[in-house]
Amino acid sequence: ASTHHPIILTTHSESVVRSLELEELYFVSKSQGKTQIKDVRKSGVDKNKIPLDTAWLTNLLGGGLPW
Description:
Blueprint: H1 14-18, E1 26-31, E2 34-39, H2 52-57
Antiparallel strand pairs: 1-2
């Protein structure tokens, strides 16, 4: 994988989310027939203070809950 050849992975796995860096995580949803992409870096979460999976499961990342 590289910036020219990215890997796109969809998941609901807490362990996968936990192992990512902020710049690797985006939320994708559909609203009113349009695809919405949210950049997690804009959430203000500090991965050094709270694991990404915990931030995700408590909706601190602002992308909605996984269930």
